[in-house]
Amino acid sequence: MSRVGRLVVIEGLDGSGKRTLTEALTKALHNLGKSVATRAFPRYGESVHADLVREALHGGHGDLAASVHGMAVLYALDRRGAADAIVDDLKLHDIVLLDRYVASNAAYGAARLHQDARGEFVEWVRELEVTRFGLPLPDTQILLRVRPEVAAERAARRAQSEVDRAKDAFESDDDLQIRCARVYDQLAADGWLSPWQVVDGTAGFDAAELAAGLVHPG
């Protein structure tokens, strides 16, 4: 069976509202009669690589979190472990929604290294995840754009209200979030890996309109 579905990725800073948008889009797509599969990365609790990431971001495994490339490889291996499942989802569903994907690795790693979207790290991520690991390319990527200070405030509130969502080393680094936002903007402007759509996550979004655009891309 060949691929029939469209792979849609939602990207954005920690605290931008990606989970909320994923849930709203899923409901809106169901209302349009479309079948939807959703996945989120990192796959904490499902993948040993994702769990190593979480442990490192909370101070475990010595100096692992300090290694930009080491952490990026773990993120990439987490997605590689899900590649077959994503391909299967695309055979069975109209839309496959991913909360974070390859661009997240590119954006955060480049920001940590003080590079932009056209730097060596972003190209290295593409080579690793797409060329070497063979991850399916997205059909479209949605950048849920919010001001870094707004995302930081939301992440802080989430950490206080959800016992399993304590802020990690990346979320606690305000300067990193600012640099990451810039890289995301550049990736979207360049159409990295696929066309991008920028959504204002501060002002709110119309999930029904977004869903219609995914079903009938113009």
What does this structure look like?
It is a single chain. This protein is an alpha/beta fold and 218 residues long. It has a single domain, classed as P-loop containing nucleotide triphosphate hydrolases (Rossmann fold). It is built from eight helices and five strands; from the N terminus they run βαβααβααβααβα. Strands 2-3-1-4-5 form a five-stranded parallel beta sheet, with helices on both faces. Helix 1 packs across helix 8, helix 2 crosses helix 3 and helix 3 runs antiparallel to helix 4. The radius of gyration is 16 Å and the shape is globular.
Name the features:
single chain, 218 residues, alpha/beta, Rossmann fold, five-stranded parallel beta sheet, 8 helices, 12% strand, globular, ATP-binding, EC 2.7.4.9, Thymidylate_kinase, ATP binding, P-loop_NTPase
